Structure prediction request, 196 residues.
Amino acid sequence: KHIQKLLQQDFAIVIIDQYGEGKDITRAVSKVLTASTYIDGSINSERSKVGIASLYIGEAGVGVSYINTLIGQTKSYEIIQDSSEIVRFIESENPGDILVYYHDSVDICKYDSLLKTIELSQSRHVYVKSLPQYYNKPTTQESILKQYYTSRGFLTAIEYIGMEIKQNALTSLVCILQYLKDLDNEIVSQLQKPIL
Prediction:
């Protein structure tokens, strides 16, 4: 009851679990709930923002990924410098939160108007961060992806999801998966193969 009230007011809730007995008690964050990651139909149906989007602004284009946190539907696209296409994608999926990562060599100020457009429409939360370098490494990307796509036969996880040549979309997907795993690993436990 209280969780729903707080989330409706756009608060984030941190759940800390206690482990051990006696003097050996430790506490650790087990979940972080937001309106777009809390899997409860009553909140999400009212707001209709049931997912999270991730944009990766790379040197040669933009990767866009979206995960519907209720049903595990995943979408990833590669867009070559067309801001209107990015806005259309965001408007059609209507995520509650948008993560924006950018490569170190990109001047993020060039994207100010795009960021203001997606933030102001539908009053979303937009988080802008420089991309940690290791997310661009194929070994790191493969390591993160194979946690979620285990039934892939002899293919690598990157081959299985069909993103061998879509580097920006792949980086965007890896970022959103790691972000959701850090919030609540249950959210990403039943992901579908991305729609490209």
About this structure: The first strand starts at residue 13 and ends at 19. The radius of gyration is 17 Å.
